[in-house]
Design brief:
- The protein folds into ten domains: 117 residues, Immunoglobulin-like, CATH 2.60.40.10; 86 residues, Immunoglobulin-like, CATH 2.60.40; 94 residues, Immunoglobulins (Immunoglobulin-like, Sandwich); 93 residues, Immunoglobulins (Immunoglobulin-like); 72 residues, Immunoglobulin-like, CATH 2.60.40; 94 residues, Immunoglobulin-like (Sandwich); 115 residues, Immunoglobulins (Immunoglobulin-like, Sandwich); 133 residues, Sandwich (Immunoglobulin-like), CATH 2.60.40; and more.
- Helix content is 6%, strand content 42%.
- The protein has eleven helices and 91 strands.
- The strands form 24 sheets. The chain has a six-stranded mixed beta sheet, with no helix packed on it. It has a five-stranded mixed beta sheet with strand order 34-41-40-36-37, with no helix packed on it.
């Protein structure tokens, strides 16, 4: 798998690892990605289409194709094209690769005048129990010019379900109506009802969905008919519309109901509008009791319950706590809610919200301290991470032992102890007593739960259901039936799964005992130990704990209870708070493990994904390449002892070392490798720059292979109009004579310009590790720049790549090596754009007969509408480029930088952070990538063309949007109901002004148009910075109330809860400087304070830097200056520059361990030259140098960029000052890759 595909997989697949030459150990096969490598459509003659499927433990015999017509996508009884499915053919290239399989399917000739579309899915479990719909791909066979007319199709479901009549009648209660739906084969599961209420804006009347009335509809069958009742409010004259849907398809039947205001003298049922006025609370330790006050309140009307934990400055949803909130109705004007927070070892702050919807909600701040305890009558909640939904693919019964304990094995995705629930039925009776005995060990893809039945259950038949979404919904496919039998009864029972093997009989054997978190800090806590073996029985696992005192073991009385299966058992051991470091030994039979309390807390562990592992030509040296530098956390001997090659330990004469991101094993004897030879590493041997240790991993060993490591320009990356020579240096290993090159023009056709085959590209071999590539680019005769992509193959032309040397720790997403010929006579530093292309989850070409890479149709089966946009040009800067989107109504959208409160329902988002603090834009120089997530809950009103079409524009200079070079995203409508409508009727104008409290305008006002149902920020209604002024807040319409700027986080143009249409937004500022004041003067350094704190002289330089040591920055740089140190943030005292105390307003201090960020004002006070930087902590000092360099001219551009790029590569571990930002954004994609993940606790 090339680096480009690897990085794509990391971004697109949450929590899945797609390694190169490495398989993640798992007992089941998993499918994580499908790539259709052919063009978007094929000839009407049909033919082969190439696919690459990626995952883990892939076996060719178990891989099945599932092919149906595109029109049958949502038809559960779709006809399958077995004639296509049977043509599956695997490539010998990936025969031994268990993580990737290349295959082809052959499609028949299209006999019709219209094109034919097929939907292709795959399963990898050998039984088609899990067909991956989220990885489906479309194959289009073009229309046959001499074909016949395609026969009309009418789906069976449409023939069965038909509504012929829809009527209503008002009851004796005013406002209450009975509705009757008549038709053929009506089904309450298919029929959906939506209620809309009329409202008026600017003299125009519209209908909007009424959630309260829609949710109140209860359908019931009356013979062949369906009936329901709606009790409309009668507090005003109003019209309502009632619409019917067949699933997601809107029917042409709807009714308009005119409700008249009731006579107040008559007794009528109150229909007062529900409002939420306030939320107050009473604190009792960990228990908070909330009083929610308003009008017409009820527990089922509180639609928004949210608990947010603010940690490391980042909001984290606590969905597990939301489920613990208990609501109780006190009266129509008050609700009571209780919540018991989890115990904590440090002070924490939660935000708890209650509301009728996202716009109408009230939030209170709840603070929990380490001294808080739960009231005695309350159950203390164990703190857990937010629940992630999983998916179950298979449930099997292992067996029932003599103690009537039933053990199961479950396979799936994202399985955890937190999200799995069980339901036990004895006939129709639910056995809650057995459900309470549920124990489970889950490791993402495998779970091993157990249940304890009773002796009196012998002979009874049970059905056990499981789910992995923490809900009360259980599916038949995730169940298993069995009978509790005595050992002597061998009669077969029809309800028992006879495909399950009986548990192995024999003596218990323990093969391994390890501590999952072997080091705890002085506060103590829970340490988990895991035992592996055969025939393990919880009752017979008797562990003992010893404390090391003066080198001797003293047994302590601590109960250890194991739970698990016959192969894997785990136990949680609680250790108390200590004053000094203590060591404990846990012994289980002949195995033992060590746990320390009071030392340095165990680091987090993450999975390792090696880039490649290969043997040299002499067969005596192994190289394991990682993606970034690592450092040992154990001694060299311990490291060496933890490595095995084909299950054999290294000899005393073998040598092991780590050089940056390479692990080198020098062998005394030559190594003869087999087809599946592998090198294995135990866990916790080394750490990355984020203080995360490795999990156990292995890599398949390859013989000496050609390997490319970097492709860098020597000259000609940017050329003037006349074109000229381009020269690149290509480095790697074992390159020999296998290097092939092709140069493609960056245009729609990807026009081939030059290749090694035709002699227009020259490859000069210096040695097997370095080669020089040269070619000439032609004169640019056009008015815009022209760019060319350089692709290099190391295997003689079988596979070409352009991203050699891409660094996943920096924002080099899908790096592309590009040379550009400007349209100008001379080279300048001006940003220029030459071409753009777009893809979305592997689809491109716009679905046309001839592919157009400037258009993409987003796939229907994919929830996220993420697109990747490639930019080509010169002097591109990820800190400068801006993006906007124009829809079919000429409304301009501006992507929202994701701060955790916005999803992509009806907004454009850019969520991943780059090196310069911006979101969604990656790369400098001649190529750039943009990750843009399009809204998924919008459609266009119409019978046919219901898919929104968006034109995407960029401004590479940050100001002027290019109107000529654009790309288009078409968000294919999937037929879901309830979407917002991209209609001109929903467009309103908002006046935006920027002024002081007394009305003085400081920035020119503007008028902005947007849709009533979307956020103000989506249409660039945002605050702007103004020198000499400080933003105070925002005012809405004619209301003089100054709202906090956070009001705009959720504010929409029309607030449905308060029924307010926002027409004016005023950003209010206050002046902070006098007109004649020098804006660059800052109180950053106190020259009169030349000394540190009193004990500074006695402190030593003992604090180590994690990030930022020996940095270099440009004079008057606009970037923040970041340092991260391995020390407790609570111990930080002061910062000094050249022995002068720095004012604390010039920097921020955050946890993680200690992160110091100096602001731009401070950086502008620094003079050119070398500065001594010192950070003072209670227990030591951290010292380093900071070099401030004068800005130099960027001409000639290509030489300077080349020099700086080489320098940056050499100094990566020391100068990667913005690494924290990149790693923080990667965690938003939930990617578990070792060297590209920054965990936040």
């Amino acid at each position: 798998m090339n680096n480009k595909k690897k990085i794509s997989a990391l971004i697109l697949l949450a929590s899945m690892l797609i390694p190169y030459s490495t398989a993640i150990a798992s007992p089941n096969s998993e499918l994580t990605n499908v790539i259709k490598e052919s063009q978007s459509s094929i000839s009407y003659e049909g033919g082969e289409v190439n696919f690459t499927i990626e995952g883990s433990n892939l076996v060719e015999n178990d891989i099945k194709a599932y092919v149906i017509a595109k029109s049958d996508e949502f038809n559960t009884n779709a006809k399958r094209f077995s004639n296509i499915e049977k043509t599956i053919k695997f490539s010998s290239e990936t025969k031994s690769d268990t993580n990737k399989k290349k295959l082809t399917l052959t499609f028949p000739k299209n006999e019709y005048k219209e094109s034919v579309e097929y939907l292709v899915r795959f399963s990898v479990d050998g039984a088609e129990k899990s067909i991956a719909r989220d990885q489906q791909r479309i194959v289009k066979v073009r229309k046959n010019p001499s074909g016949i007319d395609k026969p009309s199709e009418k789906k069976e479901s449409q023939e069965e379900f038909e509504v012929t009549k829809f009527t209503n009648k008002e009851t004796t209660t005013k406002g209450k109506y009975d509705f009757t739906v008549e038709g053929k084969k009506l089904d309450t599961n298919k029929l959906k009802v939506k209620v809309l209420s009329e409202f008026e804006m600017n003299g125009s009347k519209n209908y909007m969905k009424d959630d309260n009335l829609t949710n109140s509809v209860k359908l019931s069958k009356n013979g062949e008919d369906i009936k329901f009742t709606i009790d409309f409010p009668t507090n005003e004259d109003k019209k309502y519309k009632v619409e019917l849907f067949n699933g997601y398809t809107k029917l042409d039947k709807n009714l308009i109901i005119e409700v008249k205001k009731s006579n107040t003298e008559k007794p009528v049922t109150p229909t007062e509008e529900t409002t939420l006025n306030s939320v107050n609370y009473i604190k009792d330790g960990l228990k908070y009791t909330f009083s929610i006050k308003g009008t017409n309140l009820d527990v089922d009307k509180i639609k928004v319950k949210k608990v947010i934990l603010k940690e490391n400055g980042r909001p984290i949803n606590q969905t597990d706590l939301v489920d613990k909130i208990k609501l109780e109705k006190v009266s129509d004007t008050e609700l009571k809610a209780t919540l018991v927070f989890p115990e904590t070892t440090e002070d924490k702050e939660y935000k708890v919200s209650f509301g009728l919807d996202q716009a109408d909600k009230k939030t209170v701040t709840c603070k929990v301290t380490k001294d808080d305890k739960a009231p005695k009558e309350e159950e203390t909640i164990t703190p857990v991470n937010p629940t992630t939904k999983g998916e179950i693919t298979k449930v099997s019964l292992i067996g029932v032992n003599q103690s009537y304990e039933a053990s199961f094995t479950i396979t799936g995705l994202n399985l955890s102890n937190d999200n799995m629930k069980v339901k036990v039925l004895e006939g129709m009776k639910e056995r809650i007593d057995i459900e309470k005995t549920f124990k489970n060990i889950a490791t993402k893809t495998t779970a091993m739960p157990s249940l304890n039945f009773k002796k009196e259950d012998k002979g009874k038949t049970f059905k056990v259901y499981f789910n992995a979404d923490a809900s009360n919904n259980f599916e038949e496919k995730n169940s298993v039936s069995f009978k509790i039998e005595s050992k002597n009864n061998l009669d077969p029972d029809p309800t028992v799964d006879h495909n399950v093997d009986e548990p192995t009989k024999g003596d218990m054997k323990i093969t391994e005992l390890k501590a999952n978190n072997p080091s705890l800090d002085k506060n103590g806590g829970i340490a988990k130990v895991t035992a592996k073996g055969k025939n393990l029985d919880s009752k017979n696992l008797k562990a003992e704990i010893y404390k090391l005192v003066n080198g001797k073991e003293e047994k302590i009385d601590k109960k250890v209870e194991f739970v698990g299966t016959d192969k894997l058992q785990s136990a949680s051991i609680t250790f108390e708070k200590v004053e000094k470091e203590e060591t404990y030994i846990v012994k289980l039979n002949d195995k033992s493990c060590k746990i320390t309390v009071g030392g340095k807390k165990s680091l987090d562990t993450v999975s390792v994904v090696p880039d490649v592992c290969y043997l040299n030509n002499q067969k005596n040296k192994l190289t394991v390449k990682l993606f970034a530098p690592v450092t040992l956390t154990v001694s060299e001997k311990e490291f060496k002892d933890a490595i095995t090659i084909d299950s054999k330990k290294l000899t005393d004469e073998d040598k092991v070392s780590i050089l940056g991101k390479n692990i080198i094993i020098e062998l005394k004897d030559k190594l003869a490798i087999k087809a599946n030879s592998k090198i294995e590493f135990k866990e916790r041997l080394f750490k990355n720059e984020n203080n995360e240790e490795n999990k156990a991993f292995y890599a398949l060993i390859q013989n000496a292979i050609p390997y490319g490591s970097s492709l860098e320009f020597v000259e000609g990356q940017v050329l003037a109009k006349s074109g000229g020579k381009v020269k690149l240096k290509f480095t790697g290993e074992n390159l020999k004579d296998n290097v092939k090159v092709k140069v493609l023009k960056s245009d729609k056709q990807r026009t081939k310009l030059a290749t090694t085959e035709d002699g227009t590209v020259i490859v000069s071999k210096k040695n097997d590790n370095e080669q020089e590539i040269s070619f000439n680019l032609p004169e640019n005769k056009g008015k815009i720049s022209e760019s060319y992509t350089i692709l290099v193959s190391v295997d003689g032309g079988r596979k070409y790549m352009s991203d050699y040397g891409a660094n996943v720790l920096k924002s080099e997403k899908e790096k592309t090596t590009v040379a550009t010929v400007l349209a100008d006579e001379t080279i300048s530093n001006k940003p220029t754009l030459s071409f753009m292309s777009i893809t979305s989850y592997g689809t491109e070409g716009g679905g046309n007969e001839e592919p157009d890479i400037t258009i993409t149709h987003t796939p229907v089966g994919q929830a996220s509408k993420k697109t990747w946009i490639s930019l080509y040009g010169a002097n591109l800067d990820e800190g400068v480029t801006k993006v906007k989107v124009i829809d079919q109504n000429d409304i301009e959208w501006y992507p929202i930088e994701n701060e955790g409160t916005t999803d992509s329902m009806d907004n454009f988002l850019m969520v991943m952070k780059n090196n310069k603090g911006r979101f969604g834009i990656f790369g400098d120089g001649t190529s750039q990538k943009i990750e843009l997530i399009c809204p998924r809950n919008i459609k266009v009103m119409g019978k046919e063309a219901t898919s929104p079409i968006y034109k995407i524009l960029v401004a590479v200079d940050g100001i002027n949007y290019n109107q000529e070079i654009t790309v288009t995203a078409i968000i294919t409508d999937d037929g879901d109901s309830g979407k917002e409508i991209l209609s001109k009727d929903n467009i309103k104008e908002v006046c935006v002004s920027y002024e002081t409290e007394n009305g003085k305008k400081i920035i020119e006002s503007k008028k902005v148009k947007g849709y009533t149902w979307s956020k103000l920020r989506s249409f660039n209604i945002r605050a702007v910075e103004k020198d000499g002024y400080k933003l105070q807040g925002v005012k809405i319409n004619d209301n003089n109330e100054l709202k906090p700027i956070s009001y705009l986080n959720e504010a929409k143009i029309y607030d449905s809860s308060s029924k307010i249409l926002i027409k004016n937004v005023k950003f209010i500022y206050e002046k902070t400087k006098k007109d004649n004041e020098n804006p660059t003067t800052t109180p950053s350094i106190n020259p009169n304070h030349n000394t540190s704190s009193d004990n500074n002289e006695n402190l030593k330089d003992t604090i180590k830097f994690i990030l930022g040591k020996n940095q270099k920055i440009k004079l008057n740089s606009n970037e923040n200056l970041i340092f991260e140190m391995d020390a407790n943030v609570k111990d930080f005292i002061n910062a000094y520059v050249d022995e002068h105390l720095v004012d604390k307003s010039m920097y921020t201090v955050k946890k993680g361990s200690t992160i110091i960020t100096f602001n731009k004002e401070f950086i502008k006070t620094l003079k050119e030259g070398s500065h001594d930087i010192k950070f003072e902590f209670k227990n030591g000092l951290a010292k380093t140098k900071l070099i401030v360099e004068k800005n130099k001219s960027k001409v000639p551009l290509e030489k300077k960029e080349e020099k700086e790029k080489n320098k940056e590569q050499q100094n990566l571990p020391k100068t990667s000052i913005t690494l924290t930002n990149v790693l923080t954004s990667l965690i938003l994609s939930s990617v578990g890759v070792f060297t590209s993940l920054k965990k936040r606790k």
